[in-house]
Amino acid sequence: MTPNDTTWTTLVDVPRLAAALGESIRVVDARATASTAVRVVDARASLADPQAGAGQYAAGHIPGAVYADLNHDLSDLGRSGHGRHPLPDSDAFAATLGQWGITPETQVVVYDGSDGSMAAARLWWLLRLIGHSRVAVLDGGMAAWLAAGQPVVTGRSEVASQPPYPGRFDSTQVASADEIAARLKHAPGWLVDARAGERFRGEVEPLDPVAGHVPGAVNRPFALNVADGRLRDAQELRVELQSVIGNQDPQRVVLMCGSGVTACHLLLAMESVGLSGARLYADSWSGWVSDSSRPVATGA
Predict the structure, then answer these.
(1) Residues taking part in catalysis
(2) In the prediction, which pLDDT does 189 show?
(3) What is the distance between the alpha carbons of residues 239 and 246, in angstroms, rounded to a whole number?
(4) pLDDT at 287
(5) pLDDT value at residue 300
(6) What is the pLDDT of residue 24?
(7) For 289, what's the count of Cα atoms within 13 Å in the CB-facing half-sphere?
């Protein structure tokens, strides 16, 4: 198999990535262009410690991986009113992809510590949002890579930079607060909140100033989609996720969470089992409560 044979769009496991990276190294040694490469991106992050991910990357990462910082590369913290992790500027993100050596022909594989929720799925979604379909999350992440006895390297990977990625974010795939407000009375199942149950019910709120959820939303904690750091059996998962959205067409479904990060993991789960086309309310709960006039619900 050569890198050009890889077309992974949701998940890839450790053996397949390891095989592709081995072939990629041999091809690159033969002076292949960057467009034939499999680009691995380390997106490890911690909400409690913004510096933790970069430290973990420096201490050991998959060979050839570049590092994506949740706050600096995958968000624009200068935007107000759009939650704790506002979307980055489309042009700035395109330039970042170029710096990572990513072109439209590149197969990208993203990983974080384990299940992809922090923040590998966020980068997976952003790449899809800008028009790049050949991107997958490493199932099991760094934990699975290490458990398989695969090698790691320290320091920073040097890659040949490319021009800015030739694309722009597809705004139609991002739901606005106005759209959420206009659909509040729609039948349940169209808006799914990926936060833990106790946060959804408003029993605790460790991160945002207001506890609770958007009225009419249903709760599907993203953690229910994984077991031992990997996505669960696809058939079982599809049945469960279908029951969450009911008779809703997946393309009419909007996903949210606290700040638009773990909702991407819920989207990844849906896409991986064939429930395709859901969109994200990227501002999510932290963006919703930035306007005190918006309604809030608590309880189940």
Answers:
(1) 257
(2) 96
(3) 10
(4) 98
(5) 87
(6) 52
(7) 19
| Ranges of the chain with pLDDT below 50 | 1-4, 25-36
Q: For residue 23, what pLDDT is reported?
A: 61
pLDDT for the residue 280: 98
In order of start, what are the domains of the chain with their CATH numbers? Answer: 3-170 (3.40.250.10), 174-288 (3.40.250.10)
- Residue in 232, 212, 220, 230 with CA at minimum distance from that of residue 195: 220
Strands 279-280 and 107-111, by their bridges, are unpaired
- At position 12, the amino acid (one-letter code) is V
User: Residue 280: how many CB atoms within 10 A of its CB?
Assistant: 22
State residue 5's pLDDT score: 55
DSSP structure string for the chain: --GGG---SSEE-HHHHHHHHHHHHHHHHTT--GGG-EEEEE----SS-TTHHHHHHHH-B-TT-EE--TTTTS--TT--SS-SSPPPPHHHHHHHHHHTT--TTPEEEEE-SSSSTTTHHHHHHHHHHTT---EEEETTHHHHHHHTT---B-S-------SPPS----GGGB--HHHHHHTTTSPTTSEEE-S-HHHHTTS--SSSSS-SB-TT-EE--GGGGEETTEE--HHHHHHHHHHHHTT--GGG-EEE-SSSSHHHHHHHHHHHTT----EE-TTHHHHHTTSTTS--B---
Residue 22's pLDDT is 86
Read off the tokens for 134.
Answer: 């050949």
